[in-house]
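request received
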Amino acid sequence: DGGITQSPKYLFRKEGQNVTLSCEQNLNHDAMYWYRQDPGQGLRLIYYSQIVNDFQKGDIAEGYSVSREKKESFPLTVTSAQKNPTAFYLCATNPRREVLCSCDTGELFFGEGSRLTVL
Amino acid sequence: ELKVEQNPLFLSMQEGKNYTIYCNYSTTSDRLYWYRQDPGKSLESLFVLLSNGAVKQEGRLMASLDTKARLSTLHITAAVHDLSATYFCAVVLPLNRDDKIIFGKGTRLHILP
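response:
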């Protein structure tokens, strides 16, 4: 089945540890995004990538890092520099064709999310 | 900087009533999305609005877009308990060709049986 797989669903981290959240997609979508969700804050953009080997910082990139070595994969590392990492992390994709057509709505498709808790 | 504001942020209403959620945004955009989120779950796409005057309906929900007023509405008709969820609007900020999608803070809707 086509879709977006995030793992792990739940993750506990001790302070000072780096952790990596996985996001894999088999939708053949070009663009991939990482959002963070805190209660009452909506979704905030951490990083996004429009093509392989390229990515841009979002609004809250400090303390996070990403890579995009393959079209299917966009892992997010939460580093020890992120002071308040407890949150719900959502990965999303977007087809983003080179030439926008009327069929390209630009909407995001979301994975199931990963909940990170710092102990 | 694009700002997306939803109101109300919390809404408790009785079954059978009608209500409207508002989504205002600060910069020109011609694409707006509505998503639903159930507690502890991911986001589910509800509506995609791509032009001024666009109106989409699905069951008891209807969404509209006025790009001149920079306003979208999500109208709930004769609410039922199953519609209890958090609803987000999201707006595209065209930035060269690297579109950023910015979300509102969400409207938590609680429908009383």
